[in-house]
Design a protein that fits this description.
This protein is mainly α and 139 residues long. It has four helices and no strands. It has a domain of 70 residues. Keywords: Cell cycle, Cell division, Centromere, Chromosome, Chromosome partition, Cytoplasm, Cytoskeleton, Kinetochore, Microtubule, Mitosis, Nucleus.
Amino acid sequence: MDEARARRPPPAIHPRRPCAKCASVTPNRQSQLPGSVSSAAAVAKLDEKKKEVDAVAALDRASAHVLRRIEDLGDDLDVVADAGLVHGQVLQQWPDMFRILNMFLLQREQRAEDEDASAPTTGERLLRVPILDELRHMD
């Protein structure tokens, strides 16, 4: 029987049924601090904590949204930076393009001048007219 007592848990004390020793003290506590007031205070505190949790959750969602927007903005700025590099490379090539175009135009002008200089003017042609003496020597 001693083993059975050792294995059995102690009897639970129900909060509404105080033991005989506490019976005289418990009514005094209830009169000083009624259960309805402490329960209302606990409910009010619980509601306040729920509001705080809801506010923190809303702040967390808003922070996640702001973070996502900032990351998207960062991605867009990466694209803008790449476009700026390409734009700079194109602008860097313009002086070379103007130099090449200038060389082409100069060559075209020189060809036109050379053609003008090498083309004989009308009416000034050299003709070799055989002389009769030369024709006789050849026979």
